[in-house]
Design brief:
Layout lengths: L1 H61 L20 H4 L6 E3 L3 E3 L5 E3 L3 H8 L14 E5 L7 H13 L3 E6 L1 H10 L4 E4 L6 H6 L7 E4 L7 H17 L3 E3 L2 H8 L10 E3 L3 H12 L8 H11 L4 E4 L4 E4 L3 E5 L11 H19 L9 H24 L5 H16 L2
Parallel strand pairs: 1-12, 4-5, 4-7, 5-6, 7-8, 8-9, 9-10
Antiparallel strand pairs: 2-3, 10-11, 11-12
Helix pairs in contact: 3-12, 4-11, 4-13, 8-9, 9-10, 11-12, 12-13
Length: 407
């Protein structure tokens, strides 16, 4: 009887693995087909733009020259905006590692996006002083959630920031301090004058990360709203994650139109934001279009939709980060992303258009942070497998950074 039972178990397991193998093959074919469609769309767009360029060239020969006019350029570069011209003709521009829309009005291979990230990384020299490579503020941390702000803050240091501040509640402060002596912890987030206490530090910060471990207490959310407003006045890059995104989904006007903001929603957070802004459910058959439309609705700020492949858009382009990670989905990975993004956003914004090849610096920063988080995940998973945790990923950030950007 026992032998029969064991044989049935073996047969069932074999059937399961055969089914799983078939499923993976089907998934691989689906991805290949999707990638082929994207390449075909890029080729079609290139042909259309080439035709438009040819038509414009012919017309310009027959039309008298007019005095030059000043153009309105966005602060991060001088790329020509083709959205209005091509919206009715083509799908959103998808850049996957090696394609971009250049000012020459044609599609051609661009330098590797990783090189753009490398360009904005400040060199390590003896001439720099403490704080110059990044002073990052993390707004979050309450009685229930102390790990998230720690992961974001320590990752910022591991990436290369010099100082990392955590603005949390009083009862979370001692716990977070005990995790690491490297962090500067301010127990002010639930105080009556929390906004003023944080505002005093804003001139010393290069970016703020809103949301890790924030929770949904009304007092904390109200104070966070004030901190966001004060940060916008200072022109500081703002990264919003976790419960910070829940706050934005309730009051999108808090951040709408502030193009120095980066939102990092997962699938559920993205759906909530999308429905709040566009009054429609997410179209599961058009992920690229959805992230593009949400960014546009939010005023062309940068959206990073985390998932099997990270989709990054500023309302004009869609970058796809499919760098290898792992299947492990332990808590805390989003906090590593937001912390690293706080540093890279500062570096990219400071570097200027020449270093980013005229690209939106926050797109470059987001691609770098997504790739780094995935690489850290991959390395940690190789060592620990199913038992991997976010702490294991933190330990891999340094070597992952070197492998991606310094070799």
């Amino acid at each position: 009887m026992m032998e029969k039972f064991l044989q049935q178990s073996v047969d069932t397991e074999e059937k399961f693995y055969r089914y799983e193998e078939q499923r993976l093959k089907i998934e691989d074919k689906r991805r290949e087909a999707e990638h082929a469609r994207e390449l075909q769309m890029l080729q079609m767009l290139g042909q259309m733009l080439a035709g438009i360029s040819s038509t414009v060239s012919q017309r310009s020969q027959s039309i008298p020259a007019s005095p030059p006019q000043r153009a309105n350029h966005r602060s991060y570069g001088d790329n020509f905006n083709y959205n209005a011209m091509t919206a009715a003709l083509s799908p959103p521009i998808v850049i996957e590692r090696s394609f971009s829309l250049h000012r020459t009005h044609s599609l051609k291979d661009m330098e590797n996006i990783f090189q753009l990230v490398r360009n904005v990384i400040p060199p390590l020299t003896g001439k720099r002083h403490k704080g110059q490579d990044g002073r990052i503020g993390i707004v979050g941390g309450c009685q229930e959630y102390t790990g998230a702000p720690y992961f974001a803050a320590i990752t910022a240091l591991k990436v290369g920031a010099d100082l990392s501040h955590v603005f949390c509640t009083k009862d979370a402060a001692t716990v977070i301090k005990s995790y690491s002596p490297e962090l500067i912890v301010h127990p002010v987030l639930d105080s009556p004058n929390a906004v003023h206490e944080v505002e005093k530090w804003l001139p010393r910060l290069h970016s703020v990360v809103i949301g890790p471990g924030l929770g949904r207490d009304e007092v904390l959310l109200e104070n966070t709203k004030g901190i966001i407003e004060k940060s916008k006045v200072k022109g500081i890059p703002i990264i919003i994650d976790a419960d910070g995104l829940w706050l934005i989904s309730q009051q999108p006007s808090l951040i709408q139109g502030y193009q120095r903001a980066i939102l990092t929603p997962n699938y559920m957070e993205f759906s909530r934001l999308y429905e709040a802004m566009l009054r429609d459910p997410v179209d599961s058959s058009d992920h690229h279009g959805c992230v593009l439309r949400l960014s546009q609705a939010m005023g062309n700020l940068t959206i990073v939709q985390k998932g099997e492949r990270d989709l990054i858009s500023d309302g004009e382009k869609v970058l796809v980060c499919s760098h290898e990670g792992s299947s492990r989905r332990c808590g805390g990975q989003g906090d590593l992303l937001s912390g690293s993004l706080g540093v890279l956003a500062h570096w990219a914004f400071l570097a200027g258009a020449e270093k980013t090849n005229g690209q939106n610096p926050f797109l470059v920063a987001a691609f770098g942070a997504c790739s780094l988080t995935r690489q850290s995940n991959h390395q940690a998973f190789q060592k620990f497998g199913r038992s991997m945790t976010a702490s294991d990923m933190v330990s891999e950030v340094g070597t992952a950074f070197s492998k991606l950007f310094e070799t």
